[in-house]
Every structure is written in C-alpha cells, then in structure tokens.
TrEMBL record, chain A:
<dbReference type="GO" id="GO:0006865">
    <property type="term" value="P:amino acid transport"/>
</dbReference>
<protein>
    <submittedName>
        <fullName>Branched-chain amino acid ABC transporter permease</fullName>
    </submittedName>
</protein>
<dbReference type="InterPro" id="IPR052157">
    <property type="entry name" value="BCAA_transport_permease"/>
</dbReference>
<keyword id="KW-1133">Transmembrane helix</keyword>
<dbReference type="GO" id="GO:0022857">
    <property type="term" value="F:transmembrane transporter activity"/>
</dbReference>
<comment type="similarity">
    <text>Belongs to the binding-protein-dependent transport system permease family. LivHM subfamily.</text>
</comment>
<keyword id="KW-0472">Membrane</keyword>
<feature type="transmembrane region" description="Helical">
    <location>
        <begin position="66"/>
        <end position="85"/>
    </location>
</feature>
<feature type="transmembrane region" description="Helical">
    <location>
        <begin position="137"/>
        <end position="162"/>
    </location>
</feature>
From TrEMBL, chain B:
<feature type="signal peptide">
    <location>
        <begin position="1"/>
        <end position="33"/>
    </location>
</feature>
<dbReference type="InterPro" id="IPR028081">
    <property type="entry name" value="Leu-bd"/>
</dbReference>
<dbReference type="GO" id="GO:0006865">
    <property type="term" value="P:amino acid transport"/>
</dbReference>
<keyword id="KW-0029">Amino-acid transport</keyword>
<protein>
    <recommendedName>
        <fullName>Leucine-binding protein domain-containing protein</fullName>
    </recommendedName>
</protein>
<dbReference type="InterPro" id="IPR051010">
    <property type="entry name" value="BCAA_transport"/>
</dbReference>
<keyword id="KW-0732">Signal</keyword>
<dbReference type="Pfam" id="PF13458">
    <property type="entry name" value="Peripla_BP_6"/>
</dbReference>
<dbReference type="InterPro" id="IPR028082">
    <property type="entry name" value="Peripla_BP_I"/>
</dbReference>
Length: 288, 426
C-alpha cells in the first residue's frame, strides 16, 4: 500500500507540472496585470487548435510547431491587451471580468463553428508512450517528465524576466503604481501589453503540452481555468514558484485520492484546495 | 495522427432534410381524393457531444428520397410523407421538449429516435404519455427498459426499441476472452454516467458467473484528468482483460498512460470508441486488436427491405458517397427508417394511431440489421438484435478495418479471422 501511494505521489507531481503550466499565465495576469482573465482556459484551448492546425498543415511535430505558435500567440495576446483590455484597465474591475467572460464565449462558439464538436489531440508520435523504468514496478513517462521540467524552466525564466531584467522592472513599476509610472514617463499601456505577450508565450507552451497529454474540444476551456485558478490561489497571488507548488499539490492530491477510490480523484483536488485555503488563505508564498 | 474533420455538419443535414421535405409535397394528385401527408418525427443529436451518431443520417435520408420519391405505397394508394427532424442537442431535457413539440404542434403520426438512452428514453416517455407510436434504436435494452421503469409484466403501450442487450454483449466478450485464455481478472472503467452506472449494475454478476473477478476501482467523474490509480489497481490485480466504457478523449488519456505505466492487458475493449472508425484511427497501430462488440457490418448476411441492398452493397454505396469508412451505425440508421416504413405499409387505418401502433407491435421484419420482432425480445416492447465480436486489424482500403473474430451467438455471420492478443509493437 505504501509503495502504491508513493507511486501515485510521483505520478501526481508529474501531473502537477502540467497544472502549473495552465496556471502560469493566469498567475502573471492576476499578479502583475491585476485582473482575472476568465478566458484564460479558452485561450489555451484556442492555441491548442492553432497548434493542431499548424502541425497537421505543415506535417511537423507539435513541439517544433511552437517555433511558429509562440510568436503568433504573443502577438495575439499583445493585441488583445493593447486594443481591448487596456481600454478598461484601472476602471471598475467588473468590466474586465465581463469582457474576458465575453471573449470566452466567443472563443468557445467560434471553435465549435470552425472545428466542430469533435475532441482532438495533438500527434505526439513515440513521445506519447515513451517511458523510463526508474525501479522495478515504477515507471515515469517521458512526456510527463518533460512537462514538469519545462514547467520548472518556465518558472525560472519568468522569475529572471520579472526580477532581473529591465523589462521586468518596468512591468513591476507599472503594476505597482500606474500613476507614478506614467509620471516618470513609462509607456504603461505598452508595458502591460508586453507583459500580456509574455502570458501569451506561456499559454502557447501550455496549450502544446495539454494537447499532447490530454484531449481537448471547444468546450474544455472552463475546466482548465478552474485548475489554473486553484493552483494560483494555493501558491499565493503573484508568486510564480508558489504556482508551481500549487499545481503539484493539486496533482498529488488528485492522484492519491484516486488511489483510494476513483470517485475521489476530482474531489480530493478540490478538498485539498479548500482545506489549505481555510488554513492559509494567503497561499504558500504570497507576494501581496 | 489522423485528424478527422466532421464533414457532415448540421447545415448539410438540414439541407438534405429540406430536400426530403420538399419532395414530400403532393405534387401529382391522383384523380381520387388525395391522401393526407403522413408525418414522421425524427429526433437525434445533431449537435453536442453525441453529434458523431448522426454522421450517416443525410445519406440515409437521400436513400429514402431516391427510393420513394416522397410517396409511400400503402394499400394500393400512394401516400405523400414528410420527415420532420429535430435536434436533441445531446441533451435529454431538450429531446423531451422537441418530442412534445412534434407531437402537439406538428401532430406526427409516428415518432423515430436513436442514439443512446439519453435521446431515446425521454422521447419514448413523451410518446407513451401522449399516445403516439414510437420506434427507436441504438439504445441498449436494459437502460432503455429499466431506465424508463418498465415493468416486465406489463411493458409499454406505444413505444418500441430494437438494439443489443448488455447481457448478450457480455456473453460475446466472455467468449473472446476465454478463447484467448486470459487470467480470469477483468479490469473495468465505468464512469459516473448513465451507461457506466447501468453496466456496473447489470454486468458484474454475469462476469462472476463465468468465473471472472471484476476489478472495479469505482465510478469517476468525466472528464477525468488521469487514470494513474485505476492502472495501478489493474496492474496489481494482474488484470489481463480491460473493459472501458469511456468517451474517446478519456480513453486516450487512459490508453497513453497505460503505455507509460507498462500496463499491457492481452485484450482491450474500448466501448464508445472502438465502434467507430474515427474513434480508432487516431491510435494508429496501437489500436490493432482492440476488441469490440459488432452489431452490424458489411459482412452480415442480411438485406434491406427498403432498397433491396445487401449489407456489403449498402456499405459500398456509403463509402463511395462520403469517402468515409462505413461503420456499425450506418446499418442502424438505415434500419430505423426501413422498419418505420415497413410499419406504415402494414397499417390498416392510417388515421388511427392505434392502428399504426398495432402494426408496430406485430412487426416481423427481415431488416438490414437482422430480424426485428417485438414479441420475442428479452423484455416486452423490445427486439434484441444480434451481436458478434470483432477486432481492428490493419486494412487494405482503410488504415484499420474491423474483422469478425467470434460468432458464437450468430453463426450465420462469417468469420474473418480468429481472436488475437494485443501485440504492443512486438
């Protein structure tokens, strides 16, 4: 039994890597841009469909297609912030919420119209089933392992970007006090748009790994948003490493819950979230 | 991967329906008083998660139009008819609503519906309550009869359904597993949905009687994010046979994870996925030897009372028209309208719903899916259609083709091969 639970915990940590990826973009939006993007899950699904179109159109591996999809996604998120969301930032926070809610509905129905209701998956080739036998009876899938490692690298890079780079300093300045940033001549609308472009890059990578590990259909966005949101809140608003920890806690809770009864899998994740939220409402590593 | 675009969307279906309806208008009136237009209601999930079930409908409606030209010969007179199709949106409440609409506003003479108990049961309940004859298929008999709280002593007055029964399918599976001499441990994945809950009630006793130990990790909600726990349970129980009843995205999650965890059952049955070519194509060689129940195929030795085609001819015509591989569902779409017309042709007095109902009750039709007779079913108001077992193998015309490997219950269906265990690339 102990061995089985240890095995499940390891699988849960790997799953947490994927959850962290969903959540990273949202963590940035909430922590830096200071709004809740209801369309985050749907934007990831949209990017999964885009990746699917690119890799079937050009006949290349989904991971390779990121070379094309990441810049496209950055441009999309940049434009979204610059042309639409910027108009309402700083006003009633409900407005942004409503606008992103509208975007979510438009994306879901647009995808339904364009791609139909079929569930899809990205063609991962041999990577889908590749596995590594760590010990007798203990297998670690290469794809989940790659996902977790990529998630860690992404958190590390974003941390560098935010706290060690010039752009990061500007983003934080604009985020902390828009009026003061404007006063010293920072082009805050462009800085926010650049931050959103970074969110776009994380969303594109998340979309690719999600499409490889799970399937997606036009309606699967909201369930991704829920997981991402829980990971962000668990980790503490604004903390990127916290988001990684939050994702892993959710993954482990789900896997261990499932070990006792399959019915407990989903509920165990939510229960762990609620319990930790009650004990520590500010999350693990709150920045604010 | 084989990305699979839905070629037949809602619009083409609606268009072909418009054509079918237009041809149903009484253009050429005979000298005697023109018979009134018969109205046939047809409820199906054109949109939503069950939309794949309607793939063959435009084709079959086109066949109807070409066969009858909108006129049905009944008792020597030509009766114009109309097929009124409505979308259930894959939602039981909506199905019930559109059924009531067809009954009250359009005053249909007979109702048809198909695609899972989620569509068939609410429509049948409305027809039963309003006294409208109703013919359905593609819903297993147990969820149909007991899901509607049917009493085996009384049955229903107005509603009839033909399809396989869960009990019969289990028998077919056991036959295949025994021939592959699997360990008597069976891993099952039954989700927390109508089918999963119904099968979890009906099937385990039959498996146990045949000497199988059922490893059931419990009901789980869909979509499931991972199957680590279930796979660990199957591995530790040495479950050589795996039976999953999961929508394709969830089965993919399971099947990829099984590969990564080196869970390699000798037989795998992916219910809800393995019945459809678009369901198995994405797995490529990893789908070879997936075993499924086969309710209809191009190899079945039956023919249509509507078009006179054999099963092979029907499948060929569909593949030519659509450029897609024909599947089990095609036979059942064709048979639904085939039996419906058979009923109308035998009706004594078309103006009396009771008369149509009596014709429906006494149906004895040698249809494209085999004999349909509602007096012989395992439960009242049902007819059990025949099931054999098949496995997916590398095909000549299509990437994967279904081969009949066991015909224990229906020896007249020719075998195309013998059961083989999964190979896992070795």
């Amino acid at each position: 039994m102990a061995a089985a639970i240890a095995d499940q915990a390891i699988q849960g940590v790997l799953l947490g890597g994927l959850y962290c990826m969903f959540a990273l973009g949202l963590s940035l939006t909430v922590g830096v841009l200071r709004f809740v993007n209801i369309a985050h899950g749907d934007l990831i699904v949209l990017l999964s469909f885009l990746t699917l179109a690119v890799c079937t159109g050009l006949g290349i591996h989904p991971l390779l297609s990121l070379v094309l999809v990441v810049p496209l996604s950055c441009a999309l998120f940049y434009a979204l912030q610059r042309l639409l969301l910027q108009r309402v930032t700083g006003q009633n926070p409900l407005l942004v919420l409503l606008i992103t809610f509208g975007i979510a509905i438009i994306i879901q129905n647009g995808l339904l119209q364009g791609f139909g209701a079929d569930t899809r998956k990205l063609p991962g080739g041999a990577l889908e089933t590749a596995t590594w036998q760590v010990a007798p009876g203990l297998y670690v899938g290469i794809l989940p392992l790659l996902t977790l490692l990529t998630a860690i690298v992404m958190v590390w890079l974003l941390d560098l970007l935010l706290y060690r780079s010039r752009l990061g300093a500007r983003i934080r300045a604009a985020s902390d006090d828009v009026a003061a940033a404007n006063l010293i001549g920072l082009p805050t609308p462009r800085i926010f748009a650049a931050a959103m472009a970074v969110v776009g890059a994380t969303a594109a990578v998340a979309a690719c790994f999600m499409g490889l590990q799970m399937n997606f259909d036009p309606a699967s966005g909201p369930s991704r948003l829920l997981i991402a949101f829980e990971a962000v809140v668990l980790g503490g608003l604004g903390s990127l490493w916290g988001t990684l920890a939050g994702g892993i806690v959710l993954g482990v809770a789900q896997s261990i819950g499932g070990e006792f009864d399959a019915a407990w899998q989903a509920i165990a994740g939510h229960a762990a979230f609620l319990l930790i939220f009650l004990l520590r409402p500010q999350g693990f590593f709150p920045k604010y | 991967m084989n990305t699979h675009c839905r070629q037949l969307g809602r619009r083409p279906i609606l268009k072909s329906l418009a054509v079918a309806a237009a041809t149903g208008l009484p253009l050429a009136r005979p000298a005697i008083a023109a018979p009134r237009t018969l109205r046939i209601g047809l409820i199906m999930p054109m949109t939503g998660s069950l939309a794949l079930f309607t793939e063959h409908v435009p084709f079959v409606l086109d066949q109807v139009r070409r066969t009858y030209g909108g006129m049905l010969p009944i008792n020597g007179a030509n009766h114009p008819f109309q097929i009124l199709a409505k979308d259930s949106q894959s939602n039981p409440n909506r199905a019930s609503e559109v059924a009531l609409d067809l009954i009250l506003k359009d005053k249909v003479d007979i109702m048809c519906a198909f695609a899972t108990p989620e569509t068939v049961n609410p429509v049948s309940d409305q027809c039963e309550a309003n006294g409208v004859p109703c013919l359905t298929n593609d819903a297993p008999l147990e969820p149909y009869f007991f899901g509607r709280h049917g009493d085996p002593k009384k049955g229903f007055d107005w509603t009839y359904n033909f399809f396989f029964s869960a009990g019969q399918v289990v028998g077919t599976f056991i036959s295949v597993w025994d021939r592959l001499s699997v360990t008597k441990h069976l891993g099952v994945l039954w989700a927390n949905d109508t089918d999963g809950n119904a099968f979890a009630q009906v099937m385990p006793p039959i498996f146990q009687k045949a000497g199988f130990t059922v490893v059931d990790p419990g009901r789980f909600d869909l979509p499931a994010s991972n199957f680590n726990a279930q796979i660990a349970a199957f591995k530790s129980a040495n479950a050589d046979a795996a039976l999953a009843v999961l929508p394709s995205p969830d089965f993919t999650t399971f099947w990829n994870e099984a590969a990564r965890q080196a869970y390699r059952p000798r037989v795998v049955t992916p219910g809800k996925v393995g019945e459809f070519p678009p369901g198995v194509y994405p797995y490529g060689d990893r789908a070879i030897n997936f075993a499924v129940e086969v309710w209809w195929s191009r190899f079945h030795p039956y023919s249509s009372t509507m078009t006179g085609q054999s099963c092979a001819e029907l499948a060929d015509e569909y593949e030519k028209a659509s450029n897609r591989q024909a599947s089990m569902a095609l036979g059942f779409r064709h048979s639904l309208l085939e039996v419906c017309f058979d009923v109308l042709k035998r009706t004594q007095d078309l103006d009396k719903p009771e008369s149509i109902r009596d014709a429906l009750r006494t149906t004895d039709c040698k249809s494209i899916v085999g004999p349909i007779n509602f007096s012989k079913g395992p439960f009242p108001n049902t007819a059990e259609t025949l099931v054999v077992a098949g496995q997916w193998r590398k095909g000549k015309k299509w990437p994967l083709e279904l081969v009949i490997v066991d015909n224990k219950d229906v020896p007249e269906v020719p075998l195309g091969g013998h059961p083989e265990p999964m190979t896992y690339g070795s």
